[in-house]
Design a protein that fits this description.
This protein has 590 residues and is an alpha+beta fold. It is built from 16 helices and 27 strands. Helix 5 crosses helix 9, helix 10 crosses helix 16 and helix 13 packs across helix 14. The two termini are 36 Å apart.
Length: 590
């Protein structure tokens, strides 16, 4: 729809005349109230009706249907300061839409044609609702019934309504490949395996324990989310001795994810997969800090000869990625991402791009961490960042809660098998969901504290949605980072409110179940987000007896909740010291 040339620029300088003085081209309001309401008409022509009356043929200045008004010649009307080109004002009639079958992707434009300065407003239908802006936090919405009513009443109300059916599907153009999730693996404080993780989340259990080792005895805080099984006992002894604890977690999770994806135990060769077309992408902050600490202790106690030659290769954060590639014979690439507590999520995002653009076909991606050590615990305690509750009273980690007082340090690993969609479908793989997109940003605010405005977090959220080819209205669930620190939870809640607006999107936080798994958090929480989409169930948030009044989110508590159906995107958030923000967007697969 196009506006009449020049009409939207007509200056309104009202003055009163009699109906007998009106001439074609005048912009007229029939009463002072109409002038205040910006309800104007273009005079098309005038005809004497009787010695006392005159007939005016009128049309809205931005186009519409004609109607006549018979007025007394002395009737006072209001005109604008200049005339309008009558021939340039289109005659339009709004179609009735009662029998039209609306589809998502349709557009409806509405124009208040009686107002010369009005702008056309377009609504887009998505998830059965018409949205004025698919990404605005406070954009208006309308139902199918309202849109049909608009069209039915448009001509009489001086409006013009147009329905624009969504375009027919065009032939696909080669571009970035879609990436899907076909396998999941996890080692967490709830136990070894994805099954233990998911059951624990749905049951509302936590895996936070008292640290009873002698080395922790003098610490002010002695609770952590520790894996309840020694991972070394689940691996062949020679292999386990050459891996740090984080790498052991990673290998166990990778093996589970590999098998869950339908591949053969052993790795790429046994599965008939080209090892050069498979990659590893893992996040870690330190990996396993205890190896370096142990090497230093042996140096002090026994001298240089007491230090193992494995100390250096077992200390580097990249050990987990290298051990997974060794264990499954993956030669395409083995990358490590270190971006504080956002590491696992960023590693998944990087793997998505490697598959999208054809560098590899399959990737094992996620995070692994083992930093429940005395020095790390003492450092966090000195920062006053740790919660010090009694595990007998429930989880000391209380995300979004009014009485939250810090995070609980944790350990574990979570990995996903990512795969190009065509590769997965060609081998008949089960697909959990689409790994649809991801977003990064940086706070540039403080070396440890989050930006209280949440601006950086909001930017990462929007970028993830956009990278997924979606809109904010598509988001049906958020797996929040929510470490249970006072400032961190507030910043994240503010960012979610800014992006999601008035929409009630269920939010859950898993750190009440697990503690904060550091570089592994994003991997484990992505596993949970994939399961949420696959099963259509949102786990509850443990430890949050009463939501902080300042949070303002729909926090799922008490029991699992059915995942809403009026959208298809789930966001998994990870934020780290230094302002690292990473958000993963997963999409439901029909």
């Amino acid at each position: 729809m196009s506006h009449s040339p020049g009409t939207s620029e007509v200056p309104i300088d009202p003055h009163t005349v009699t109906a007998a003085e009106v001439i074609p081209g005048d912009l007229v309001a029939l009463s002072p109230q109409h002038a205040e309401q910006q309800r104007w008409y273009v005079v098309l022509h005038t005809l004497p009706e009787s010695p006392e009356t005159i007939r005016l043929a009128l049309r809205p200045p931005l186009g519409g249907t004609d109607h006549d008004e018979v007025l007394g010649r002395d009737r006072q009307v209001t005109v604008a300061c200049r005339r309008v080109d009558v021939d340039a004002v289109p005659r339009l009639s709004s179609p009735r839409l009662d029998a039209v079958e609306f589809r998502d992707g349709d557009r409806v434009s509405t124009l208040r044609a009686v107002d010369p300065r009005a702008a056309e407003v377009t609504y887009v239908r998505r998830w059965g609702v018409w949205h004025r802006d698919l990404d605005a936090a406070t954009g208006g919405t309308a139902s199918d019934a309202e849109v049909r009513r608009w069209a039915g009443e448009a001509d009489g109300a001086g409006h013009v309504v147009r329905h624009h059916p969504r375009p027919a599907a065009e032939a696909s153009v080669p571009g970035p490949r879609r990436v899907v999730v076909t396998g999941l693996g996890a080692v967490t404080p709830l136990g070894v395996g994805v099954g233990e993780l998911w059951r624990g989340l749905l049951d509302g259990r936590h895996g936070i324990r008292e640290l009873d080792g002698e080395e922790f005895a003098e610490l002010p805080v002695r609770v952590a989310g520790t894996v309840p099984v020694d991972p070394a006992g689940l691996l062949p002894r020679p292999a386990a001795r050459r891996m740090n604890r984080a790498a052991q977690f990673a290998v166990l999770a990778a093996r589970e994810a590999w098998a869950d994806a339908g591949f053969t135990e052993g790795g790429t060769r046994e599965s008939g997969v080209d090892p050069e077309r498979v990659g590893v992408s893992l996040g870690a902050i330190l990996g396993d800090a205890s190896v370096l600490v142990g090497g230093d202790r042996k140096l002090r106690e026994k001298g240089p000869r007491g230090v193992s030659p494995l100390t250096t290769p077992m200390t580097v954060p990249s050990q987990a990625a290298s051990q997974v590639s060794l264990d499954l014979h993956i030669t395409g690439e083995a990358r490590t991402v270190t971006s504080a507590c956002a590491s696992g999520t960023e590693a998944i995002g990087q793997a998505i791009d490697r598959i999208r653009y054809g560098r590899v076909d399959i990737a094992l991606a996620g995070g692994a961490e083992a930093v429940v050590t005395p020095a790390i615990m003492a450092s966090f305690a000195a920062m006053r960042a740790l919660a010090a509750g009694d595990v007998a009273d429930g989880s000391p980690s209380r995300p979004f809660a009014k009485d939250r007082d810090g995070f609980v340090n944790g350990e574990g690993a979570g990995l996903l098998v990512l795969e190009s969609e065509e590769h997965a479908r060609a081998r008949g793989a089960r697909i959990y969901c689409e790994a649809a997109g991801w977003g990064l940003s940086a706070d540039a605010h403080h070396m440890a504290a989050p930006d209280p405005s949440g601006g950086g977090v909001a930017l990462a959220l929007r970028r993830a949605v956009r990278d997924a080819g979606g809109h904010v209205v598509d988001v049906v669930h958020v797996n929040a980072h929510a470490t249970a620190t006072v400032d961190g939870d507030l910043a994240e809640a503010g960012a979610l409110d800014a992006v999601l607006g008035q929409r009630s999107v269920p939010v859950t936080a898993l750190k009440g179940h697990l503690g904060h798994l550091q570089g592994a958090a994003g991997g484990v929480e992505a596993v949970a987000a994939a399961l949420t989409l696959h099963h259509g169930v949102v786990p509850p948030t443990v430890g949050c007896a009463e939501v902080d009044d300042a949070i303002g989110l729909d926090v799922v508590r008490g029991a699992p909740r059915e995942l809403p159906r009026d959208g298809d995107l789930v966001l998994s958030n990870s934020f780290g010291f230094g302002g690292h923000n990473a958000v993963l967007a997963l999409r439901r697969v029909p």
